[in-house]
């Protein structure tokens, strides 16, 4: 009898311990799910195709059980009460499955992370109260410089902010030119006065290269002066580069640079696929899928970030080549994949 009772108690205690472990594991899983449920709040203030594709990749990369809130701000990015699309990230459901809506101002202010896509959303996010980590994505270097000058939140350094620039670093751009044109070291650039941060970055990258690049810069304050600037810089260059600035964003100005390069037999490089399609030789670009992955990694880095914004250029870069232009210039280039791998090794 005594043995039977002891056996029963031993079995009961064993089951109790097993049940406790199960309950603890369940509780930890629920806690992890709750932490994950704070998830990611994504702000969008425009309908640009690249931004929409970026958000689609963000949503597809959400961990199972995570929470993904997409806040569509009105045009201009004003922070008013708008609908939030909330979808559980489940591998066996579509991207829009289980979507419900709630008001923006009912969202937790200090849990999870906020990611703002583009300039209007970045302005709205910087203007909102709260201390949750913030990632500003799909910005050009000049977009960021303008925001930093106008936003006290970026200057104070009392909030963990990550900034993901949409373009690869100038060092990557120069590495591409070097891979395509070995033994050529003169790069010509026409810039606007607002492009000075980009020019400084290019010059620093050029000086740090081995051997260093000789950067020839001419400024065009307006459209009328672009032809004169090109006339001056072309004879002093082995190749031309279109910066992601007002010239690079203007189709007419970009075509002027391309025509000047073609007339002198000079290849033109840049940071957009559109430039390559229009007649540029090559570009180092970062796709929305790559930027989405980097944005998530940047958000994780913010956990250990110090004061001041953590700014990253897009990496890795993907190379795009215009084969027809290369043939016209008499160049035999490696394939895009090989050049992309070279840039990755260089970094």
List the main descriptive attributes of the protein structure presented here.
347 residues; alpha/beta; Rossmann fold; 2 domains; 7-stranded mixed beta sheet; 6-stranded mixed beta sheet; 13 helices; 13 strands; 19% strand; disordered N terminus
Topology as a string of helices (H) and strands (E): HEHEEEHEHHEHEHEHEHEHEHEEHH
Helix tally equals 13
Second CATH tier, the architecture of the largest domain: 3-Layer(aba) Sandwich
| Ends apart, CA distance between termini | 75 Å
Q: Report the strand count.
A: 13
Beta-strand residue percentage: 15-25%
Q: Biggest sheet: strands side by side, in what order?
A: 3-2-1-4-5-6-12
Mean pLDDT: 81
Shape: globular
The CATH C-level name of the largest domain is Alpha Beta
| Low-pLDDT windows of residues | 1-37, 79-110
Radius of gyration: 26 Å
Helix content: 40-55%
CATH fold label of the largest domain = Rossmann fold
Structural class: alpha/beta
Largest beta-sheet characterization = 7 strands, mixed
The domain count comes to 2
